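I hope you will forgive my troubling you with a question about protein structure. I am sending you one protein, given as its amino acid sequence and as whole-number tokens for its backbone shapes. Thank you for your consideration; the sequence and its tokens are set out here:
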Amino acid sequence: MSRFQNAARVSRADRPASRLRPVGPLAVTLAVTLGALVLTTPPATAAPTPEGTARDAAHIPAPPLVTAHTRGGAEAVPLGSAERRSLLSRAADDRASVRKALHAGRHENLVAKDVMKDADGTVHTRYARTYQGLPVEGGGELIVHDGPHGRRIDDSLHTPLSVPAVKDGVTAARARTGALAEAREQHLTHTAVDGSTRRVVWAGSGTPRLALDNVIDGVREDGTPSRLHVVLDAATGSRLAAYDEVTAGIGNSQYSGTVQLDTQRAGDTYQLVDTQRGGNSVRDVTNGGLGVLFTDADDVWGDGTADDRATAAVDAAYGSRTTWNFYHDVFGRNGIADDGVGAVSNVHVAGLANAYWLDSCFCMTYGDGLDNRHPLTELDIAAHEMTHGVTAATAGLLETGESGALNEASSDIMGTAVEFYANNPKDVPDFTIGELADVRGTGKPLRYMDQPSKDASEKGTSQDYWTPGTHLLDPHFGAGVANHFFYLISEGSGHKTLNGVHYDSPTHDGLPVSGIGLRNATSVWYRALTHYMTSTTDYAGARTATLQAAADLFGTTSDAYESVANAWAAVNVGPRYVKHIAITSLNTRDAAVGQPVARTVSAVSTRPGAVTYAATGLPTGLSLDSVSGLISGTPTTAGTFRTTVVFTDSAAEKRRYTFDWTVVASGGDFFVDPDRHDYAAWQSVETPLTVTGRTGDAPADLKVSVDLVHTFIGAQVVQLVAPDGTVLLVKDFKWDTGTELHDTFPVDATGLPANGIWKLRVTDYTPAAPGIPPSEGGYLDRWSLSF
């Protein structure tokens, strides 16, 4: 769990880099990762609310985790260590052909990181990138899918990697000073620089660039250890990113009842070492350091209470054993990293109400709780922490923004699945996290998957639904969106009681969702995580990944495929299928008389073949192309038009969408309300507006109204381009860190012709400077001229 407010994790030095993860499971070369259990992008406007529902919200009971009903070929098969080594070796030999397919430059190289194989022979290989021998961090990995139907490459970079040649403008001493300053801002104590400054290529935001990575060891406010990476631009010293290798979690422990343990005999004593599962072991770290391996004379461990120090060790060993069995039995995975290597569990950190996974030592550490009598060794917490290791070995989701939220959610999801797999009567399976713990003193679970917002506390609230601000949240609260999705796809929406627990899961669009069962939902998520997600996957990308996984397992024409899409729509990510048709684009915003319209409606169907389009009640002057879905023309009449768009699939199934389309008159005001004019970092966008019916020149007080959204609004320079090409400044650069602009600016347009095509030009000049987030681009919402 990555800062579950109480748990953490780290990264193994002898493994290929598994990418950055601020405050979460992170794995980079020579790095350590901790994970704590505490406590974007789909369109900014919600998809249109459809009529009806895809199917009745009949509850499909979630069976124990057994074999999924899949389309055989997509089922993952376990790899023996020899075959795994052979496939990785073959992947290393195949790098040249992959580089050729990518049009990679001469300085770019690939490192085979992980490999998986399906029953139909398809091999999925993950590669990390290097550039001039430097590790590429913050993104840049790719997945190659080689199967019976050929090769497909999913690349997180959309263009060949190119890094400007620059000399380090920052000394190592200055980089360390900047890193320590960042640590102070994050309220770390007992800080110390760990090792030398590493040179890397940072691809996490904007143009890839040479960067300096410093690691600061310290302690967070709740006592959780920290290994904070501070990444600085090597040329300017500006902060590019800061992320913690520690990903932490919380839960409860010592109430799993009497459980079977696999131990090792050593002379006259027994050791808490599981030789059947890669050598999983448990150590007592009461006095710090590497701790002491638990031993016992009669192989009977603990007494079920906190009075016996071995009790926490029993729960930790049981959690490791059960999680290993789950991944092996359900997915054929041979340990956390799929390499047969076991992990170390460290117990009894006094006063720590947290737990964390550290990939560099391949270990979990559990605190004893604030009262030193409630170790955080509950099963779903142990599984949460170990899943951070699985994520680090596969997708490597960065612990920041939406990818960090998906990282945390993956651990919650698999922690829940392990709990159902174990079906322990002492820890009855449910869709809550840390339900046996009382870290906040409220007697309630830490997280709720059916309605995440029920976890509201002074530290924040998990989201039930995606919003444009999700990427700004602590990943533990942003994880609520995926947790809610997983509950809905497992169990469906509405009222129900499972294992004595009552649930009532709402949906964003008010329409029901049919579940596909916990086993199938878990299979979809695991395949998406291990086969399709990468370090920078966001919620829109997670929807794509899970739909691809559902297509692999059940086919695109299956009810399961549509259920996955509809569960995402229910948390405000992407469109919903109604009558097997999902509307992917439909702009219902205002138009204006005399302003050209070019808007495209589009839809997809789970039926083979294309969707066609028709419409009634369009504003006067507009028409719809039945094949392309383009609505074009120039409105001639103001008013409100009751418009119905009809979508028809190849099976002649129809879906109708009706809305009121307002056309405003152009008099003294002329305005543009575009589909949404997006622009990328360091680029410009120009949006035209046609002025007719005016005489003479424009006035000296021409008013330009602008509605603009961007992560750093102050760096957006706005200019007005007159019909004759004259450029007028509307808004200059200023130090305003707001995220939205809604304002009217007077511009002296004296001597410029009024009639003609005016353009609004917006340019992103976001600097690389301390305290300024990297530019993520923005969009022009609308603009107008008032004469």
